[in-house]
Amino acid sequence: MNNFQFYTPTKVVFGKDTEGQVGELVKEQNCSKVLVHFGSGSVKRSGLLDRVYASLDAAGVSYVSLGGAVPNPRLSLVYEGIELCKKEGVDFILAVGGGSAIDSAKAIGYGVKYDGDVWDLYLKKEAPKAMLPLGVILTIAATGSEMSNSSVITNEEGWLKRGLNSDLSRPQFAILNPELTYTLPEYQTMSGCTDILMHTMERYFSHEMDTDLVDGMAESLLRSVMRAAKVLLKDPKNYNARAEILWAGSLSHNGLTGCGRVGDWACHQLEHELGGMFDVAHGAGLAAVWGSWARYVYKENVARFAKFAVNVMGVAYDYADPEKTVLEGIEAMENFFRSIHMPVNIRELGVELNDKQIEELAYKCSFMDQRTIGGMKKLAREDIARIYEMAR
User: Fold this and answer.
1) Taking CA 247 as the corner, what is the angle to CA 31 and CA 103, rounded to the nearest 5 degrees?
2) Interior CA angle at 160 toward 159 and 166, to 5°?
3) Tens-place pLDDT, residues 331-344
């Protein structure tokens, strides 16, 4: 097991009707004015936004609002939010919604405290040194941004999707009410479940093998999410299943399942370029590339992939042919994705990739030939292109 630091400062308030506590939670931050940042009209139509405003009013908290966050949140809205915060003297941000609203809020928080162009932080030209504090009311189980140190933003100029990790962006509090996720369409729910699985799998597929405790937690989380996803296909308002995936989403991306090892993260990098170019749902994009990635890299650590096949997917271990076990495990994972109506290739995303697009995706994913991706196997531009070819 490698040395590690585990840092989770976010206060989680979990359960029914907990959004009613937001006014007091914000008031505890001793802020003068809050930006309420949200996404589409769903938070308005459901009445959630009105309840949030009422709670803030009751607590005597002053606020301004900015909606419009979309999947693969846009840099242009971030710029708008930065200007609004500076103009209004905002010193705290409340994100109401899913990962898109939270990531957008994080970028706004960085930008208010940064003298230059916030996009430079996402390009790693500079490291963030400060950020406005942030709180969250979560409405979808998916990205784990409510407890993580990460955010991802898409720049419309060139359609580049880039991430930034800093503990500065970990929210002060996160309100998690499973009932707020009841009205999500099936596709969003299952895409979110896939994102949760992948956040754990990115950490699980590591060369460190002496991590049995962390492996066990990761395997249990994966099995729990897979069970809950199947329940929600039949019963979308099953509270316990909603609660399971909501809490799993936070635990999958707060660092817990990665303690003591170095993760892979290649699938996320591959998907970021797909999301940037074609604006696909993040979880669905991950499902579309995972199988091709796994088949391309599994020989780097057959034992790790076999452990996944046996302990997570329930495959019988073939002592005479461990690679057979691995391939059956990969196929079983793809069959699970199919069972929850997720794609297992890029074509099923509704995208017909041509050779030129593959080259562009690989070029961007390699940061214009300036980096490799992946921990299980270092993937250069030509490897990346090959995986896109396999996945199309």
Assistant:
1) 50
2) 145
3) 999 999 999 999 99
